[in-house]
């Protein structure tokens, strides 16, 4: 069970590493646009859209990784008073009953969304921006798959913790050291 959890966690880690590397590309695009606008009086709709696309990809690729590190948004006002085993059981139920169906809907509709964009050769509305809008739209179902992989990696680890064979269900290794 831990082997499968580790495989899913590694996939999420690699996706987060790609997101981390894309930060350099985003920084370069922003700098290029700022320098062009300030010193050469140029402006590019495509570069502006590329910034938004890169930003979206960076955010979406990190969901699964965030879940494996317990770094996702959580409201623990009620559950902080419960015991650790009860909180883990509650987390497992929440993943199964709420996260999974929601992510399945995102995968189904996001895939259809990206496919329709590909079939229609959808591009920028103004014609001056980026073509191939399906690329950014395909990240939506990919991010949902990564979120499920991260969540189920944690579920498997929680089951092992509840059986007494592991202390912490969350990964603690840093992004670039594992």
From TrEMBL:
Origin: domain of life: Bacteria
Domain Tripartite ATP-independent periplasmic transporters DctQ component, chain residue ranges per copy: 26-157
Annotated Gene Ontology cellular component terms: plasma membrane
GO MF term (any one): transmembrane transporter activity
Keyword Zinc set for record: no
Keywords: Cell inner membrane, Cell membrane, Membrane, Transmembrane, Transmembrane helix, Transport
InterPro entries assigned: DctQ, TRAP_DctQ
One Pfam family from the record: DctQ
Quaternary structure, from the entry: The complex comprises the extracytoplasmic solute receptor protein and the two transmembrane proteins.
Protein name as it appears in the record: TRAP transporter small permease protein
